[in-house]
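Re-run with default settings, no changes from the original entry. Doing this only to confirm the output is reproducible before filing.
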Amino acid sequence: MTEDAPPGTRSGASSARSEAIYQELILDHYRSPRNRSVLEDADVVVTHRNPLCGDELVVYLALDGDKIREARFTGQGCAISQAAASMLTGALNGGTVDDARAILACYSSMMHGDASSIDDPSLGELRALAGVARLPARVKCALLPADAFSRALDEFEER
């Protein structure tokens, strides 16, 4: 394992150091979210809610053919849902619809405890959320933006 392995994949002092780094990354995305604003020329807008905790996201996608020109979000919720939305927009921006589907599937697998998903380089910063899989009550928070973007891709493809 590398020194920057996601939480829960190392042991001892290295694990504690890695967990602290990933917690800081999550808090940074929560405090200073990337791509958080309304996208006026969006091709698809989807609102997704978690009725159990009250988190709500609106996701926006602008596409040129099968390329995601821009992904943004607005909404409110816990640090995990907001950080995950921020990280996901970064991962999806500029990629293809197929790339986005692959990232969303891998991310979902990671959130459901698939340890092999953690090593997928396409996840990038999303790997910081790997430790959430050990917190069943928070997995829905981490998956809220992924589910919203998946639904947005479905709606776009149904057109």
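The first helix runs from residue 12 to 31. The chain has a mean pLDDT of 92.
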